[in-house]
Write a structure and sequence with these properties.
Radius of gyration: 15 Å
Shape: globular
Distance between the termini: 25 Å
Number of strands: 9
């Protein structure tokens, strides 16, 4: 079966839309001689500096550009969305590597072997996102609500930050 990379146009949409459609996709990272393959099970959208009014430089990267954010000693994997110059990106929050569930953006980056040298590069060589889908339900959750599927909801309103994740993940 042929694997297809996600086209750049996939990321030329709002962060909320991209986060919703990124869940269930396969990420392949080539940090060294061995590759790490995982399925994205949770992604969070950030738009217009809605996170405490902060717009980070990497949020302004263009669609499909990798933004590796350093925060409190951890690296967070993000991908630019919408258009260059517009504060919009999606953070990968949880992945499934085989039967291992990796939760938390810092742990995700560590497990994938993400380093700061990926920052500002287009998806492709060292990090790929594949155009496949898992057949599991996806829900949107208000990023400010407790992180449980029980409290999941879809809201369209003032807060543009959303978390998309898969329900019933059993490693």
């Amino acid at each position: 079966m042929e694997t297809l990379l996600l086209p750049k146009g996939f990321f030329s949409r709002t962060a909320g839309t991209v986060a919703r459609h990124l869940v269930g996709k396969t990420v392949v990272c080539h940090p060294g001689p061995a590759s790490v393959t995982a399925v994205i099970v949770e992604a969070e959208a950030f738009e217009d500096g809605a996170d405490a009014g902060v717009i980070r430089k990497g949020m302004l990267y263009g669609p499909g550009v990798i933004f590796v954010m350093s925060h409190r000693g951890h690296l967070y994997l993000n991908v630019g969305t919408e258009a260059a110059g517009k504060a919009s990106c999606v953070m990968v929050r949880s992945i499934l590597v085989g039967k291992e569930l990796v939760k938390g953006p810092g742990k995700v980056s560590k497990r994938l072997g993400i380093t700061l040298d990926l920052d500002g590069h287009l998806l492709g060589e060292k990090l790929e996102l594949l155009a496949n889908d898992l057949a599991r339900p996806v829900v949107l959750k208000d990023a400010n609500a407790p992180r449980t599927a029980k409290n999941s909801s879809v809201r369209h309103g003032a807060d543009p930050r959303w978390v998309a994740h898969q329900q019933d993940i059993a490693p």
